[in-house]
Amino acid sequence: MSYFTILRQRFLSATGVVSLLLLVRGFGQPVDSPAGKGTIDPFRIERGQLIVPAGTYLVAGKPVQVAAEARLRIRPTDIVQVEAEETLLSKKKPEGFFSGTMLRGPKTGSIGAFGSLIPGSLVIKDAAGQRLIEMEDYLVSTPFALIGIGPRSRVTPATKVYASYAYYTQRIDSVVVDRSGAVSVVEGQAQLYSPPIPAAPVGSVTIANVYRPFRGTELTAGDVFPIKASAVQVATATRGGLIPRTMAKIAAGKPVKVVCWGDSITVGGDVKPEEAWANRLQVELRARFPQAQLTFANHSIGGTKSAQWLANGNYPGLPKQNAEKCRFDLVLEEKPDLVVMEFLNDVVFPEDVLASTYAAIHEELNRRGIEWIIVTPSLKIPDNYDLAEMKDETPRLLDLFLLRFASSHGYPVADAAARWRHFHREGTPFFALFNNAYNHPNALGHGLFVDEILKCFTP
Fold it and tell me: What pTM was computed for the model?
């Protein structure tokens, strides 16, 4: 059983959801109307209700009968109210991910949950109960729930203040059909990040999941995720047979050095160390190849992009990184047999920068006889929080570049991005798969990397 399968079974606690292929008579493609209404064949949304038509559904080859049309009321997303949270106003202007004081309610492991703070809900008072004035006494950056001192403040950064505000949580509900053909909703657990898919009752089958995202006050077509395929059906560009020297050494029981190289995802941001893909890869490879003499290293820094490593942390237009740690030389000095590389942050680069950067990496690795697995990165929540992104299967420019580059140079790709783009067909909203509610995958997301990388370790 693959690592991804194990994690998916934990996440999709409903055993009937794990590996179902749902084929519905007349089942079509999702259609999202600009107004957020519309239909999601064969479902409809009318007056805030999800309509499940009567009919015969084929689930894992078995017919499932919906006896009568069901009209389901799906609750809005849950809201948490915080009263008088004691805090200080940062001297730093609130902006970006970290600059400013982070409100504690929406805080994930590392950052404020993106888009969770309800705009206009924040009220800050001083110790005497006097309300402070935004833009004078304090500043607020809503996206990541950050606050700071204002330009004409009556308080200082050392003065205790009291913040009251409201924030959204996330939830996934399931639409299930029981043995009698009756349709009902199983409501999930509201959480700030990584909300689980609820278990289907014994004898019932889940046919769709409904996402209640941040701001999910009204039910829209973008919230509904019919289960149309299983995880095993996704087509990726991952191929084996392209790291022959590494595989030959493994087979011969010779020493093999593997270096993982990347950004905060490769570091393992916001997951337990044993869940991070780079660490889990070590465990899986040692289990798969017990005769091998494997050693590993991880050179990764959160927030970095590949070009910064080639410039010793000082790439024009980007924040300076520690020149002693952000150096491509450190990867090369390991004298690895194989480099496994993941950089989601490279998504910001235009194609010309990608081309020159990856050509330079290729030149150095090729000259030293080092093999290279290029990982297409996970997805992230877009800055405009467009729910349609979860059902858009169009590859990013970065993914297309990596696929072309790897193909032209004979490098293997571990195509994790294709797995992410397939999630909506499995009934899973990928916005729910981040432990920082923005771009750091949870354990399930890290499992995708492991499974795709392992496919490269074949003759």
Answer: 0.89
